[in-house]
């Protein structure tokens, strides 16, 4: 999907959706919540505020359908997916992707990646 010239300005420069999905214990796909997704999302939200990122929104998302690779997050408008498991990785994504406009390649999830290939 491409933004058209007549589209309104973006309300947020970046919108981050962090999966916090919960599945029953022992589910074969697992869930992001059991991988500390809520703690990581809360940290990301607090860090974005500390860094003064006013046009950035960090949101909780229900299932993003990639829990076996998680904890998963996706950043729009680019549609770049990441797997972050530590506060340091969250900091790296905020600085490199959100602030500097780059990518943290080693943390990115590819569109065709699944639990077997990832």
Which secondary structure elements does this structure contain, and how are they paired or packed?
Elements: E1 14-19, H1 37-50, E2 56-61, E3 72-76, E4 80-83, H2 87-99, E5 108-109
Features:
single chain, 118 residues, alpha+beta, Glutaredoxin, 5-stranded mixed sheet, 2 helices, 5 strands
Q: How does this model look, in words?
A:
The protein is of the alpha+beta class. It has one domain: Glutaredoxin. The protein is 23% helix and 19% strand. It has 2 helices and 5 strands, in the order E-H-E-E-E-H-E. The chain has helices at residues 37-50, 87-99, and strands spanning 14-19, 56-61, 72-76, 80-83, 108-109. Strands 2-1-3-4-5 form a 5-stranded mixed sheet, with helices on one face. Strand 3 and strand 4 form a beta hairpin. The model has no long low-confidence stretch (mean pLDDT 92).
The gist of it:
With 118 residues, the chain is an alpha+beta fold. It has helices at residues 37-50, 87-99, and strands at residues 14-19, 56-61, 72-76, 80-83, 108-109.
CATH 4th-level superfamily: Glutaredoxin
Radius of gyration, rounded? Answer: 14 Å
N-to-C terminal Cα separation, in Å? 26 Å
- Beta-strand residue fraction: 15-25%
Task: Please state the overall shape, judged from the principal axes of the Cα atoms.
Answer: globular
CATH topology: Glutaredoxin
Strand order of the largest sheet: 2-1-3-4-5
Poorly predicted runs are: none
Summed up, the helix count is 2
Structural class: alpha+beta
CATH architecture: 3-Layer(aba) Sandwich
> How many strands, which pairing sense, and closed or not: the largest β-sheet?
5 strands, mixed
How many strands appear in the DSSP assignment? 5
* Mean pLDDT across every amino acid position: 92
Q: What order do the helices and strands follow? A: EHEEEHE
CATH class: Alpha Beta
């Amino acid at each position: 999907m491409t933004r058209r010239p007549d589209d309104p300005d973006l309300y947020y420069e970046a919108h981050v959706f962090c999966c916090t999905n919960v599945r029953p214990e022992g589910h074969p796909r697992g869930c992001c919540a059991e991988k500390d997704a809520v703690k990581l999302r809360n940290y990301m939200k607090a860090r974005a505020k500390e860094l003064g990122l006013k046009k950035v929104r960090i949101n909780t998302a229900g299932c993003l359908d990639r829990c076996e690779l998680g904890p998963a997050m996706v950043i729009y408008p680019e549609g770049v997916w990441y797997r972050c498991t530590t506060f340091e990785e969250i900091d790296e994504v905020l600085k490199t992707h959100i602030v500097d406009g780059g990518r943290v390649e080693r943390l990115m999830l590819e569109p065709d990646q699944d639990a077997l290939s990832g």
